[in-house]
Design brief:
Length: 243
Amino acid sequence: MAYELHYWPTIQGRGEFVRLALEAAGAPYIDVARGDEAKGQGVPAMMRILDDRKAPQPPFAPPFLKDGDLVIGQTAAILHHIAPELKLVARSERARVWTQQIQLTIADMVDEAHDTHHPIGVGLYYEDQKPEALRRAAEFCGARMPKFVAWFEHIVKHNPAGSRHLVGGKLSYADLSLFQLVEGLRYAFPRAAEKALAKAPLVLQLHDRVAALPKVAAYLRSTRRIPFNEQGIFRCYPELDLA
């Protein structure tokens, strides 16, 4: 049975971390909101689940995933759920917990990147909060981005199984998510990201190895990979790229 991924159809956003895991594993899935409304898919199908007032355990927001009759919200929780089946996490409990910790730290950085252009409220336009965005971006580019990147570099370097992966000696969903994080940073903050990543050669090597994986490379070339744009989490506003 195919997984059903529910996420906004025009942006990569947080749903892209789930898409990458599914694509890298060659798992069958339906990107529901990008489907044909005439066939019961599209955004209305996603909204029916979000707006279901009778659901006892409703997801708060996209992305969420349906696996049979199980509905899982939150990117990190989705990945934690599907990774064993997709063979994208090691079997030991220690490794699973560590992989989840890395994923949650990636999520923290994603949130901080988002908040550079929406520091006051998500219900406001970027144009309504430009002065605050400039201050937030200066802090993110100057202090937070280097700190996060240095932590990722440290854990790759000190992986007991070698520096090809974040956890153990095989590909995990954390590797895929770090790849996506680097992609987003390079799009949104090209100058600041180049400066921070120059001090993280092992992170860049891991990124390049993930990009070269046959299934990932095929996905990146396909129309299934939505281009970055200024409606998603990573937005390229040159005035916020404060290297």
